[in-house]
Write a structure and sequence with these properties.
heterodimer; A: 6-stranded mixed sheet; 8 helices; 18 strands; B: 268 residues; mainly alpha; MetI-like fold; 0% strand
């Protein structure tokens, strides 16, 4: 990934009492990219986002926005907007007034506020909902209003703090696609915070995996999935088998392992017993008890029954993090 | 939960007895304000509105009403400003002694009025060398009016959380604009309800008032108390009491309605 750096974070730290929430983060974010800060709760991803927005001040380090250090500026002097986890729509205003708010306080003329708000409402496919109060909207609709309220200001960066967390699975998947399309259409840099690895893999140009206040790995979804740099990343992003074989610890993805009664495919194999078969929709997981512990495979060959003696096998080249 | 028929009857009659204890004497006062007999013979043989017109013409009543309204409005205004500021400080900032301050603010409502009254009287007249008057009454009333406003405001601020203010600042509004356009409108109904209750409290306060008013000022409750046992004034006292009952209903009703509204119209 290359291009103009729009947000540059250098040596960022922040503690709350004794807890080091952010323990030294460096990150360059490029113009127009969709970057996800991924990590478990307490990993520091939200604190980094809040420092970019200006709700928290860093203990040390800098945040540059378009080449200018903004780390000490209040939120209202930064050219970024936020979509909040709980949406934070103003309950006493209707949808249009919510969307117009940012333009109004910046002193735009009334007709321009209105025209741009209507356009933003159209962009999130909520035409005709302008007069409603936020309490009269569904979760998904509130989500869209929150998006429109932020995007109408045409910020150089949009910050999204787990915005899909409150939606049900179906709606969440739909919004993931919509958000990605919207981001492409408006061309604004999106910085998206989530703890959902699937969401991160689906939507992002790049992912920064957070752990204990630091970025553990930064890369495209493909890079992170195929070449995780640590056990933490390999377990947090996708599923992984950790196997000790010939006194060497290796990691291997379930989809790289074939399970079969007789056949082996690949230059590594283990004998075992099929303990369980778990149907999870698009795939089926085969749990095999071997001398090296339980191995999960999603690639069966032939008919298999629980209790069968089976062989699991894989290509040595698919292993990663070999110690 | 289901309860048996007998238990229901018992509970209903207990409730009836309880309510009767409170409201029968009050209705007697209201009915007696129309009782033509000067000695309030019961049951009333004749009704009249004479006491009402006499009460309206009575200069003592008018004066007392004026002082009560003045004291109530001033104490409420002070309570609204200070109570809101305090609620903000306690709910939004971390500082040393925060919990202690919160406790100290709420305490006056449970302190015996006679203690507050004596203490204030002592402070005003002995330590500060002030003469008692409207100002001292207002300060005395403000000590407990603040509690009501503070409690209402802090409950609302806690429920509002901080994300609305953050959203406003994020969209480009500074602290003052955010307060004006976001915080205050969402706080207004809580403050209005708190203000009404505070005014109601001040309006019928008698103990603290006795110690802080001095001879020049008679609020309505004090006027009633002073005239209660004067046979000539008794019918007028009934009229004033009846008026107070009716007037007290309004702020309580309104503030209850407002607090109900806000449970549905607040955050989601």
């Amino acid at each position: 990934m290359s291009g103009t750096v729009i947000v540059s974070i250098k040596g960022l730290t922040r503690s709350f009492g004794d807890v080091r929430a952010v323990a030294g983060v460096d990150l360059d974010i490029y113009e127009g990219e969709f970057i996800t800060l991924l990590g478990p709760s307490g990993s520091g991803k939200t604190t980094v986002l809040r420092m970019i927005a200006g709700f928290e001040k860093p203990d040390s380090g800098f945040i540059e926005l378009a080449g200018k250090d903004v780390s000490q500026l209040p939120p209202y002097e930064r050219d970024v907007n936020t979509v909040f986890q709980d949406y934070a729509l103003f309950p006493h205003m209707n949808v249009i007034s919510n969307i117009e708010y940012g333009l109004k306080v910046k002193g735009f003329a009334k007709h321009e506020c209105n025209a741009r708000a209507l356009e933003a409402l159209k962009q999130v496919r909520l035409e005709g909902y302008g007069e409603r109060k936020p309490s009269q909207l569904s979760g998904g609709q509130r989500q869209r209003v929150a998006l429109a309220r932020a995007l109408v200001n045409r910020p150089s960066v949009l910050l999204l703090d787990e915005p899909l967390g409150a939606l049900d699975l179906k709606l969440r998947e739909q919004m993931q696609i919509e958000l990605k399309e919207l981001q492409r259409a408006v061309g604004i840099t999106f910085i998206f915070v989530t703890h959902d690895q699937e969401e991160a893999l689906t939507m992002s140009d790049r992912i920064a995996v957070f752990n204990n206040g630091r970025i553990e790995q930064l890369g495209t979804p493909r890079e992170i999935y195929a070449n995780p740099v640590s056990a933490f990343v390999s377990e947090f992003v996708g599923q992984t088998n950790r196997i000790c074989i010939e006194s060497v610890r290796i990691n291997i993805r379930p989809e790289a392992i074939t399970v079969s009664k007789s056949q082996t495919s690949g230059n590594r194999s283990l004998q075992g017993t099929l303990r369980d078969v778990i149907f999870v929709g698009a795939t089926t997981r085969y749990l095999v008890d071997t001398s090296c512990g339980t191995v999960i495979s999603v690639v069966p060959v032939g008919e298999l029954k629980i209790g069968d003696a089976v062989t699991v096998s894989w290509e040595k080249e698919k292993e990663f993090l070999v110690h | 939960m289901t309860i048996s028929r007998n238990a229901r009857l018992l509970l209903a009659s207990l409730l009836g007895v309880g309510l009767a204890f409170i409201y029968v004497p009050l209705s007697v006062v209201i009915i007696n304000s129309f009782n033509a007999s000067k000695t309030f013979s019961w049951p009333p043989s004749q009704f009249t509105t004479m006491w009402w017109s006499k009460a309206i013409e009575n200069t003592g009543v008018r004066e007392a009403l004026k002082w009560s309204v003045l004291a109530g409005l001033s104490a409420t205004a002070i309570a609204l400003i200070l109570g809101t500021c305090l609620a903000f400080a306690v709910s939004r900032y971390q500082f040393f002694g925060r919990e202690v301050i919160s406790l100290l603010v709420v305490l006056p409502i449970s302190l015996p009025g006679v203690v507050t009254g004596i203490a204030l009287n002592n402070a005003f007249t002995k330590q500060l060398g002030m003469s008692t008057g409207l100002l001292t009454v207002v300060i005395g009333h403000a000590t407990f009016c603040i509690v009501i406003v503070y409690n209402n405001a802090i409950a609302r601020l806690r429920r509002m959380g901080t994300s609305l203010q953050e959203a406003s600042m994020d969209l480009g509004a500074n602290g003052i604009t955010t307060f004006r356009l976001i915080t205050l409108p969402n706080l207004a109904s809580a403050l209005f309800a708190g203000g009404l209750l505070a005014f109601g409290l001040s309006f019928d306060e008698i103990v603290v008032t006795t110690f802080t008013a001095g001879p020049g000022i008679q609020t309505l409750p004090i006027w009633i108390y002073n005239n209660l046992f004067r046979p000539n004034q008794a019918p007028i006292v009934n009229v004033v009491a009846a008026t107070l009952v009716v007037l007290s209903i309004v702020p309580i009703y309104l503030s209850q309605r407002l607090s109900q509204d806000t449970t549905t119209g607040g955050r989601f």
